[in-house]
């Protein structure tokens, strides 16, 4: 009881100090697994992160760790390396890490819906942080209204006179498509911009800066006679790669080309030109994900899976402006 710091310990202060001194002298550490078995929980959360090379997910993992620590929990991290098949492996293997619950930051949550159903049978709660699909997930979801951010971004570009807009998407390994590009074209049509499906181009990239730069180079090559006046990236890395590609092609940003990203990683504010982006509230995502998971662990969650949707925000900076004349 002394070594476990139990509040109902019967020992005197003198006895307590003697026991603690002996434990320190002998380098004694309590067996956490044995304690967890006795208590029925490990006070450890699992986290699956898709891309630790992307500052957005690095920051998100840091905020989740802080939120977990504030609730007295440790964190075990699995890195899926933007590979949907590896995501499945991580969802399965993290159960062997003695975790009380899992926060899964998934690239394509609907793609993993059947896997999530299967994993729930083991009795370990799961909360997903990621984009919302057409069909509800079998687990709680924390998501961000990026669709609203894209709508604000496209409306802004329309007001600035842009009629030829390109989209650079980043696909995970083994991912055939993603919803954000579909959303981009749908919103363009809904806003009656006049270019949807005609003067909108799209190019695919991997999740690296080099891949995004190469995607931009392919984009302007195939659109040589009708070059885009604006580019929207699926994330900030896509936008930053496009920015570098534009500079190498002799294009001035934003005079010749406006560029907008998604995520608002810290680098966006400090590059030249600073990047216009759709901000996702990283701290709020982390706080809600940890709160929802701990509620599930403690048996306090709703009977059905719930969705927490957080707002996005368009942050205007130097990389966007009016369309070029002519």
How would you describe this protein?
With 326 residues, this protein is of the alpha/beta class. It starts with 12 loop residues before the first helix and ends in an 11-residue tail after the last strand. The protein folds into 3 domains: 1-30, no CATH class; 42-144 and 281-310, Response regulator (Rossmann fold, 3-Layer(aba) Sandwich); 146-280, 3-Layer(aba) Sandwich (Rossmann fold). The model is unreliable at 34-38 (pLDDT under 50). It has 10 helices and 12 strands. The longest helix is centred in the first third of the chain and has 16 residues, at 55-70. Strand 8 (230-233), helix 9 and strand 9 form a beta-alpha-beta unit.
The CATH architecture designation of the largest domain is: 3-Layer(aba) Sandwich
Give the helix tally.
10
Identify the CATH homologous superfamily of the largest domain.
Response regulator
Distance between the termini: 79 Å
Largest sheet: 6 strands, parallel
Compressed to H and E, one letter per element, the order equals: HHEHEHEHEEHEHEHEHEEHEE
* Low-pLDDT ranges: 34-38
Q: Tell me what portion of residues adopts beta-strand conformation.
A: 15-25%
Radius of gyration: 24 Å
What is CATH's topology name of the largest domain? Answer: Rossmann fold
Give the helix proportion (percent range). Answer: 25-40%
CATH class of the largest domain, named: Alpha Beta
| Overall spatial form | elongated
Strand order, main sheet: write it out: 2-1-3-4-5-11
Number of domains: 3
Which class do the helix and strand fractions yield? alpha/beta
The total count of strands amounts to 12
The residue-averaged pLDDT reads: 87
């Amino acid at each position: 009881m002394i070594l476990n710091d139990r509040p109902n310990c019967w020992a005197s202060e003198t006895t307590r100090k003697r026991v603690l001194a002996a434990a320190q002298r002998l380098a004694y550490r309590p067996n956490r697994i044995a304690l967890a078995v006795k208590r029925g929980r490990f006070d450890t959360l699992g986290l699956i992160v898709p891309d630790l090379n992307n500052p957005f997910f690095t920051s998100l993992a840091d905020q989740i760790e802080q939120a977990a620590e504030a609730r007295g929990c440790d964190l075990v991290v699995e890195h899926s390396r933007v590979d949907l098949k590896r995501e499945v492996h991580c969802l399965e293997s993290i159960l062997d890490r003695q975790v009380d619950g899992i926060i899964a930051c998934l690239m394509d949550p609907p793609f993993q819906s059947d896997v999530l159903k299967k994993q729930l049978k083991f009795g370990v709660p799961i909360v997903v942080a990621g984009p919302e699909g057409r069909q509800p997930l079998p687990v709680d979801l924390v998501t961000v209204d990026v669709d609203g951010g894209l709508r604000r971004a496209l409306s802004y570009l329309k007001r600035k006179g842009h009629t030829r807009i390109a989209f650079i998407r980043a696909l995970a390994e083994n991912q055939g498509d993603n919803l954000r590009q579909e959303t981009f074209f749908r919103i363009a049509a809904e806003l009656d911009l006049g270019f949807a499906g005609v003067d909108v181009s799209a190019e695919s990239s991997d999740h690296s800066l080099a891949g995004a730069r190469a995607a931009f180079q392919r984009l302007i090559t195939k659109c040589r006679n009708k070059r885009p006046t604006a580019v929207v990236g699926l994330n900030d890395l896509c936008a930053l790669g496009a920015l570098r590609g534009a500079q190498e092609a002799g294009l001035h940003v934003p005079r010749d080309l406006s560029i907008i990203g998604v995520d608002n990683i810290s680098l966006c504010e400090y590059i030249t030109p600073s990047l216009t982006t759709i901000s996702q509230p990283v701290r709020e995502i982390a706080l809600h994900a940890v709160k929802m998971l701990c509620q599930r662990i403690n048996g306090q969650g709703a009977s059905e899976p719930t969705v927490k949707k957080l707002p996005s925000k368009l942050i205007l900076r130097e990389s966007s402006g009016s369309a070029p004349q002519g």
